[in-house]
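Input sequence (484 aa), recorded before submission:
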Amino acid sequence: MLFTPARCLILLLLLNSTDAGRILGKIKERVRNLLLQKAKQPLQHVKEGKVHQPLDHFNRLDVNTFHQRFFVNEEYWQRPDGPVFLYIGGEGPIFEFDVLAGHHVDMAEEHGALLLALEHRFYGDSINPDGLKTENLSDLSSQQALADLAVFHQYISQIFNLSHRNTWISFGGSYAGALSAWFRGKFPHLVYGAVASSAPVKATLDFSAYSNTVGLSLMNEAVGGSEKCLAGVREAFVAVEAVMGGNASRVAMDFGCCQIPKDIDDQIELMQNLADIVMGTVQYNEEGVLMSISELCGVMTYKSEAYEDEMEAYNRLVKLAQKTLKDLMDTTVHSGRRTARQWTYQTCTEFGFYQTCEDATCPFSGMVTLRAETELCLMLFGISQHSLPGRVAFTNTYYGGDKPRTHRVLYVNGGVDPWKELSVVQDRAEEGEEAQTVFIKDTAHCADMMRGRVTDRRSLKKARQEIEKHVVSWLKMAALEKAV
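Predicted structure, token format:
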């Protein structure tokens, strides 16, 4: 949830004084920053470019355009017929490392591919100066983004003199993973195969299953969780609500609020941001972003004689928040580019994805309701809350939800990742057809997209081998088809 002027936590202001947004978004930014630091190639291998795109692909009378940014890495490309690996940008800026590091880059080196990364419209530098005004946001949608990809395909083909002999394969993670699958589904003549990692292809207004999956992961002993850990988290959130009801001044002091959370909206904001700390830890677990589930559970189950028994759970959550602030501020690469307003608009118009806590199984605060989460749609964009179910239903009708009729799309998901609930996790391939899914037990969000590490779980290493097996199969099939 975004902040109104009267609703702000100093925690977020310290992280980014120019961009209001939830902690979960800041954690995702931290993921990208860490990857950039680990890029193995020097930046001189990367070329940046911009392509003119129509603001509205579906209105021939609208002649307005914008510059869309992309990166190219030709280091591994076996000219002239080598394949093209397209990394699709999602709800944030792209960076040089998108064509320098990651599993898709390792495969590109192995198979002589041209590496491309295209930034999503209205994010990063791919936006006009006045693009965030509500009246201009109507040109921001996944459908327009897919049309951008089609135009980009044509542009790159002309620039590099590509032909039908160059096999295109798309890659993406999270929302961009869904775009990767949808690009293959809507433009099968342009992209031969697609890898969709942690892709929420099923739009869902009330995504209460997210919080429920977080709770299950906190109990998963294989990743350092326990029933005691989940109980500790539940107890801590109950304690914060209790203290806030009688001593809001103490809560403001303990959690670094810039004002006392007396108003119900301020209280909901605080509880959501505290939940985001736990959610982000589970979502990215062992990817070196913040702490792992094991470390979080260590904090939430630690017994101390320094506090009264009834306040111990409360103080554990205070400690967790303090640790998160310290870790999130420890970054050498920082981007001030805004993303929260654009993504909130897309949730209001297309996807929902509201991580509510009204279900009794939710380990956080029941104050985070669907009504509270969606009120921003009306407040920021004039979009009625009553219109949201129809918008979400159309998205699923248009793309097929979690039962898409796609061919040569590989859906990759991790067992710890809450977003698997909205992806394709079970194969629906006919007998004799190629499998469509890879499921990685005890692994987090988009973990397969990272470059391999010695410390990676065996299941993750095996999954990357399976992904490459599919990519190799597609390249061989494409070569045979073109030889006929």
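Checked by second reader. The beta strands are 46-54, 65-73, 84-88, 114-118, 168-173, 193-197, 204-206, 352-354, 409-414, 437-440.
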